[in-house]
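Annex B. Sample input.
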Amino acid sequence: MTVNVSSRWSASDYGSNAAFVPALGQAALSLLDPQPCELILDVGCGDGVLTQQIVDAGARVIGLDASPEMVEAARARGIDAFVADAQALDLAGQALRFGQFDAAFSNAALHWMLDPKAVAGGLYCVLKPGGRFAGEMGGTGNIETLRTGIRAELTERGYPVPPEDPQWYPGVEEFSRLYAGAGFSDIQAQLIPRVTPLATGLAAWVLTFRSGWMDVAEVPESARPEVALAVERRLAPMLQRPDGSWFADYVRLRFTMRKPL
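Annex B, continued. Sample output.
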C-alpha cells in the first residue's frame, strides 16, 4: 500500500481536536443525499463519525481509510471499515468482494492522496453506471497561513523541510479536468473559503493535523509541543481573535459528479 507518509493520525487526538471536521462535513453529506438500501463507499472514513450518519440514513456503507488506528476507531462504532489505499481501488476482485457501489463519498481526505488520477480512475471503476460521487476536500489556498507559518518555523529551526507540502489542494478547473478525464460527467465543483474556529487552539491543531508532516521534517517527538507552541505564537497576529479564540483559514472544494449510464 502506497500511502502519503505525512498522513499519520492519532484517533484520540483527532477526537479531541478535530470534531469540527465531521461537524462541518454536513454540507457535503447533504450533496450525497444517501438513500435507504444503497451501497455507499466512504473514501477516507476516518473515525467513522460522519460515516455513521450515512448508515443512519438506511444505507449500507463500506468505509476505507489508510490509517489502521482510524479504522479501528470506526469499527468500534460498528462501521464496516477496512484499511485500504484509495489510490488502488481498481484492484482485481473488488467487485466480487463488495459489488459495485451506488454512490461514493469523501470528506476531508482526498487532499492527502498524492496520486489523484489513480483515485479518480478507481472511483470510476467501483461505481455502478449512473452512480454518483459527492464530497469535499481542501482546495487552492487551503490553510495557506497555517502552512506558511509551520514551514517558516521548521526552516528557522534547521529541520529538513521538503520544498513542497505533501498535500493536493486543487482549483476547480484542475479538479474537474482530472475527474472528467477519468470518465465522470455532470461535474459540479466550487471553492468555498471557510474560516474555521479551533476550539482547542492552534498548537493542538498542529500536533493533530501535522504529526506526519513533522515526521517528514524529522522533528523529534520530544520537540513537537515546543514547535507547535512556537507556531502558535508566530501566527497569533493572523489567526487569533481579540477574545483569545483561534481560527484556521480553510478553503474547501465541494463537488458532485456522476458516472454516465
